[in-house]
Design goal:
single chain, alpha+beta, Rossmann fold, ten-stranded mixed sheet, 16 helices, 37% helix, disordered N terminus
């Protein structure tokens, strides 16, 4: 415990022999300690300080210094580095495998000679090859990717890390010391296409310091690109409480992410999105919280949380908006068949995009060419009957929303889809045709009111809006702030990226304006709660696939044991003979 001591101003002390003591003006003895410090003979240092202050003396307060022996410092240093080294060894599975293999090999060589060692090696190789052929996915995850990550850490990233951080001025110094502090490279994970480097930033550094050097980082390690992604702070207690409450059936929100000093550098070594994305498997029971839709740039599957959200898709002509919309329809296939999901589709292009799949839709509208009133009679004053078809459609959705609110009020805060009470997905192509390009002012006003109501209140009652448009400007898509999930395909201008994916998205790597015309379906997705957009690519779904989907997933269809038989038919024949392209096979 520190003790406060006071020192007098030497100019105010007359005695040159403090150990003999001095006397004040009243003849009292002024006490000093053995080291000549004044005030210890009274009621401690504080009393001495008050006495000196009353006599015009300058009290000096200092703390008593602790002295630590060299042996203690050496022991602390050894313990710190031993614990750090042990933790590093625990996190090196490749070294453990190599060490165990070396020990087993040495024992075999010492006990049975080289013949047994060669035999064991052959058996091991055969097992690995069989594993690779039988289940390639698990082989990559458990064998190939860890070995590749360890190899690239040792021979690619570690040798260049400190010189690179110094060259990019990403190092810091402690006050009064010359030693440079380098951001710590914690671990490396590889997926074959992307190397993910977990980095701990030094005090005073932020994510943007690395983001602005992304091109230099990629060039140094000979990668196609570099993404800088934030890592939220772990919250184990809140995560545990959230999982327990959710397991009990309670509707709770996940804990809000908190910032940390960790980040991940994604180095794109091999881009799997250059080649067309194959069709993904259709889940038998669609998970509305994680719907598999596209391929990520790290080679893994990107999933969309469709439940309790709205999705906005923006891209220029030919960028692949149809691939996004039809991928959502296809992933929901078995949910449509079992009536867990209903699709309400608006096709302002006169039915050119969605007419082929209208057997999958509970409601379908491409406009009303006949000027009619709500009671079915012709109204010659209502000239824009085409637009009023959209009005009736959206107001019907609002009526359904109100009905669900009345039914769920006081019972549930969030709708739970089930057959008979499905999730309603309102899918709108060419969204600007409903918001900016209308000529009837009254129709436009009513459509805006209906869309705003659905976007602001529909999520809680199981009504989701998925909209696609070409122009992201505010005057065209003035309600884009109500879409939590946004997908940006190829865009015309760099400034449009931040309009779609929120401010700063392009600085974090979302270069939608650089997507090539030869890669339609490539996009960046920004999801609520995630700071950095993810680069993905959707599969192309042609007309044959759409007709097959109608045969397999039409509401009420039983599809057990069905397989597609390929055949060529004209467009008119497909409507009548679509089911002949599917044969029933014994289960």
């Amino acid at each position: 415990m520190h003790q406060l001591r006071t020192d007098p101003d030497p100019s105010t002390v007359s005695s040159t022999n403090p150990q003999e003591g001095d006397r004040d003006d009243d003849g009292d003895r002024a006490d000093y300690d053995e080291e000549g410090r004044y005030g210890e003979g009274h009621a401690g240092g504080c009393a001495g300080a008050a006495l000196m202050a009353s006599r015009g003396m300058d009290p000096r307060i200092r703390t008593e210094a602790f002295r630590i022996g060299f042996a203690t410092v050496l022991a602390a240093w050894l313990i710190k580095h031993l614990v750090g080294g042990l933790w590093w060894l625990i996190r090196q599975p490749v070294l453990w495998v190599l060490a165990a293999s070396g020990y087993v090999g040495w024992r075999l060589w010492d006990g049975s000679g080289p013949t047994a060692l060669v035999l064991v090696a052959v058996v091991l190789v055969v097992v690995l090859v069989a594993w690779r052929l039988v289940h390639a996915a698990s082989f990559r995850a458990w064998v190939w990717w860890p070995v590749r990550a360890w190899w690239r850490r040792v021979f690619v990233y570690a040798p260049e890390w400190e010189p690179l951080m110094t060259a990019l001025h990403l190092t810091t110094k402690k006050a009064g010391e010359d030693e440079r502090l380098v951001p710590q490279l914690l671990r490396i994970r590889s997926t074959g296409a992307v190397d993910k480097l977990r980095v701990r930033m030094q005090p005073g550094q932020v994510l943007s310091d690395f983001a602005k050097n992304a091109d230099r980082l990629a060039a140094t390690f000979q990668a196609s690109d570099c993404r800088v992604r934030s890592i939220p702070r772990p919250q184990p207690k809140k995560e545990l409480v959230f999982r327990v409450k959710r397991a009990m059936g309670r509707q709770v929100d996940p804990p809000k992410p908190k910032p940390s000093r960790l980040l991940e550098l994604w180095f794109l070594v091999d881009d799997p999105l250059h080649a067309p994305t194959p069709l993904l498997a259709v889940p038998v029971r669609p998970n509305l919280k994680a719907l598999p839709l596209a391929l990520r740039e790290d080679g893994l599957t990107w999933t969309l949380r469709l439940l309790a959200t709205h999705v906005l898709v923006i891209g220029v002509t030919g960028s692949g908006k149809g691939s996004v919309l039809w991928s959502i329809v296809r992933a929901l296939g078995h949910g449509i068949r079992t009536r867990l999901v209903e699709l309400w589709v608006i096709d302002p292009k006169g039915g050119m995009e969605f007419a082929a799949g209208q057997r999958l839709f509970a409601r379908y509208c491409y406009g009303d060419d006949t000027p009619k009133t709500t009671d079915g009679t012709t109204d010659p004053k209502r000239k824009s009957g085409y637009e009023w078809g959209f009005v009736d459609f959206l107001e019907t959705a609002v009526t359904e929303m109100r009905s669900r609110q009345a039914r769920l009020r006081g019972i549930l805060r969030t709708h739970r889809p089930r057959p008979g009470d499905p999730l309603i997905v309102v899918m709108v192509d060419e969204f600007a045709s409903l918001t900016a390009y209308l000529t009837d002012r009254e129709a436009k006003k009513r459509i805006d009111n209906a869309l705003n109501l659905l976007l602001s209140q529909g999520r809680a009652v199981g009504i989701v809006v998925v909209a696609a448009a070409q122009d992201p400007r505010k005057e065209v898509v003035d309600m884009r702030g109500l879409f939590p999930t946004r997908i940006a395909l190829r865009l015309a201008e760099p400034d449009e990226v931040d309009l779609v994916l929120r401010k700063g998205a392009r600085d974090r790597g979302a270069r939608c304006d650089e997507i090539g015309e030869h890669t339609p379906g490539t996009a960046y997705a920004a999801v609520e709660g995630t700071a950095e957009p993810v680069r993905i690519r959707f599969a192309y779904i042609d007309d044959d696939q759409i007709h097959t989907m109608c045969s397999l997933f039409e509401p009420g269809t039983h599809t057990t044991g069905l397989r597609l038989v390929h055949g060529d038919h004209d467009q008119d024949e497909r409507r009548d003979d679509d089911r002949t392209r599917v044969e029933e096979v014994s289960a």
